[in-house]
Amino acid sequence: MNSCPVRLRGPEHTVDPAGHIEAMRAEYGAVVPVLMDADVPAWMVIGYRELHHVLNTPATFARSSARWNAWDRVPADWPLLPMVIQMPTVLYSEGDEHRRRARAITDALAAVDPHELHSVTVRMADRLIDSFCGAGGVDLRTAYAARIPALVLAWIFGLDEHRGDELAAVMTAMIDGGPDAMVAQRELLARMAHLIAERRAAPGPDAVSRLLAHPAGYTDEELTAELIVVLGGGNQPTAEWIGNALRLMLTDERFSASFAGARSSVRAALNEVLWEDTPTQIQAGRFAVHDTELGGRHIRQGDMVLLGLSGANRDPGVRAGVPAEGNNAHLSFSHGAHQCPFPAQDIAETVAATAVEILLDRLPDVELAVAPQELRWRPSPWVRGVSSLPVTFTPGSPRGDY
């Protein structure tokens, strides 16, 4: 197996990620040596069984980045720092501390009424569509797919739409890992601290108030960082999930032939996206508790292991002859103790499916405004989503009945 590391920056990661992953698999196997920004090393796991093992053996592959052996190689302005910096959150905690936090988040999200969630998502979708339905064309990514999860999360947090949009913009800047990533993280911390102060003074029927009242006993500092985790985990991946499903339905004849009113195909498209174009392509990560072997590679204590979710989902060893339709064994929501909480998965699926269904109802003749091959993907190996999704449709009148 090749031991020369692969750089994670470059067009090959976005132009043809499926082909690039299979080329890496053929040359490197299930575990690939990689270099992140500033040539910081890591291992990326793209084998399904190997990744499943990593996610389910926290005694060997732990979550806390305090274990990382490469901190001395990380520049102070490293753009990926928000993804690994040790913070008091459910993402980086382990053992009893992680269970305390995970239980609180699960309970707070499980209390979201599914019928009210659906009604709110329908209302938000109609409001957004009303803002552009008379124009005959729009970029569905920026005007619709990227906005609706943030608006629903704002409602779950007890915020108005304006503050929800602001939060989404700042979160995107942080997740993109650009030069403003750390500035965006500080901005989010300030906004969440302000929100917590508001909820302590005046609790309401929202997830933030429920977390403050939970027996887990969050301090304000703990909850400030935790809310960013919930927002980041719910906003951008769901937005890309919606955008990627719409792209699939607009470009693939299996779906486009029955696009108008084809509610039955929406769930199939959403599930296929999780297999083929999962919003979170790579996630950081896990850290080796001790020297070990994985996929024929020697992993040293403290090495970072990146979760190659997209690569694992595409592993021909588990996908051969198994169609994506009706198969939910993908790893797009991760697995094991640190997987996305089940209530959060349900919320994301309700928002994504409802958003696509309402768009089909309101704009039944929507078509892609450019050739499919002209669509461009966001320039990030970590996230999979189109940069824009321009469409045309017959202009209509705002509904305004929400």
Shape: globular
The rounded distance between the terminal residues' Cα atoms is 59 Å
Mean pLDDT: 90
For this structure, the quaternary state is single chain
User: Roughly what percent helix?
Assistant: 40-55%
Largest sheet, in brief, is:
6 strands, mixed
Which CATH class is shown?
Mainly Alpha
Total helical segments: 18
CATH superfamily: Cytochrome P450
Structural class: alpha+beta
Strand content: 5-15%
- As laid out across the biggest beta sheet, the strand order is 1-2-3-9-6-4
Residue runs with pLDDT of under 50 for 5 or more positions: none
Strand runs, count: 11
* Whole-number tally of structural domains: 1
**SSE series:** EHHEEHEHHHEHHHHHHHHHEEEEHHHEE
| Estimated radius of gyration | 21 Å
Description:
The protein is α+β, with helices and mostly antiparallel strands. It has a single domain, classed as Cytochrome P450 (Cytochrome p450). The chain contains 18 helices and 11 strands. The protein has helices spanning 12-15, 17-28, 48-55, 81-84, 95-110, 114-130, 140-145, 148-157, 161-175, 181-201, 207-213, 220-234, 236-251, 253-256, 266-276, 309-313, 316-319, 342-362; strands at residues 6-7, 31-35, 41-45, 61-62, 137-139, 283-288, 292-294, 297-299, 304-307, 367-368, 390-392. Strands 1-2-3-9-6-4 form a 6-stranded mixed beta sheet. It has a 3-stranded antiparallel beta sheet with strand order 5-11-10. A hairpin with a 5-residue loop joins strand 2 and strand 3. Helix 5 runs parallel beside helix 18. The chain is globular and about 60 Å long.
Write the layout of secondary structure elements.
Elements: E1 6-7, H1 12-15, H2 17-28, E2 31-35, E3 41-45, H3 48-55, E4 61-62, H4 81-84, H5 95-110, H6 114-130, E5 137-139, H7 140-145, H8 148-157, H9 161-175, H10 181-201, H11 207-213, H12 220-234, H13 236-251, H14 253-256, H15 266-276, E6 283-288, E7 292-294, E8 297-299, E9 304-307, H16 309-313, H17 316-319, H18 342-362, E10 367-368, E11 390-392
Parallel strand pairs: 1-2, 3-9
Antiparallel strand pairs: 2-3, 4-6, 5-11, 6-9, 7-8, 10-11
Helix pairs in contact: 5-11, 5-18, 6-8, 6-18, 8-9, 9-10, 10-12, 13-15, 13-18
